[in-house]
């Protein structure tokens, strides 16, 4: 379940994807399958191959992409991988907003 995010942020993420960008969206999240994590970053792109190429920089596998019929396919990033990629991509705003550096 997602929370701590506004509809406008979701719409901005979708708009960025629609414009051909690799887009980042971080929000609070609860999932019984991953009880140790309380945030997720969705990294999406309209073109699957573009997303695959981007993911290769971080050893992300194609099969980890959530393929969506609505065009907003994405990787879900959790934990240390989430933090490392956000640092590498210069997304310090995501890190500070969700206090991701406090668990380091």
UniProtKB/TrEMBL annotation:
This is YneQ. The lineage of its organism: Bacteria, Bacillati, Bacillota, Bacilli, Bacillales.
